[in-house]
């Protein structure tokens, strides 16, 4: 077993702002259960995740089933073309 994968819709919650995104997340089976990571790309190409995430104290990801998980943004992995950003989950993987 290599990894558990989530590739679907989600919503970034940054402060009082919510932005629909496509989430591509992984949780390695070989790592502790609280290790998960991936990328987020905004559904709307005009949305700037970088500025939103940089200026927010709490970052969360809401899944279609209503569950939420917090994350940190990896500022070294921002894609200026697609608007995607790499994230590292904090706490148990919600998928």
Give the termini distance in whole angstroms. Answer: 16 Å
> Which runs of at least 5 residues are low in confidence (pLDDT < 50)?
none
Number of helices: 1
Largest pleated sheet: 6 strands, antiparallel, barrel
Domains (count): 1
How many β-strand stretches?
6
Shape by Cα distribution? globular
Question: Structural class per helix/strand content?
Answer: mainly beta
Structure notes:
The two termini are about 15 Å apart. This protein is mostly beta strands. It has one helix and six strands; from the N terminus they run βββαβββ. It is about 5% helix and about 55% strand. It has one helix at about 50-55; strands at about 5-15, 15-30, 35-40, 60, 70-80, 85-90. The chain has a six-stranded antiparallel beta barrel with strand order 1-2-3-6-5-4.
What key phrases describe this protein's structure?
95 residues; Thrombin, subunit H; 54% strand; 6 strands; 6-stranded antiparallel β-barrel; mainly beta; 6% helix
Short synopsis of the structure:
The chain has a six-stranded antiparallel β-barrel. The chain has one helix and six strands. The protein is mainly beta.
Write the layout of secondary structure elements.
Layout: E1 3-14, E2 17-28, E3 37-42, H1 49-54, E4 59-62, E5 68-78, E6 85-90
Antiparallel strand pairs: 1-2, 1-4, 2-3, 3-6, 4-5, 5-6
């Amino acid at each position: 077993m290599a990894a558990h994968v989530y590739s679907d819709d989600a919503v970034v919650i940054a402060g009082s702002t919510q932005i629909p995104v496509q989430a591509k997340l992984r949780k390695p089976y070989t790592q502790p259960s609280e290790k998960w990571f991936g990328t987020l790309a905004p559904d709307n190409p005009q949305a700037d995740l970088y500025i939103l995430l940089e200026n927010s104290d709490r970052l969360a990801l809401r899944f279609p089933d209503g569950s939420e998980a917090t994350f940190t943004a990896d500022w070294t992995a921002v894609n200026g073309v697609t608007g995607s950003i790499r994230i590292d989950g904090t706490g148990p993987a919600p998928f």
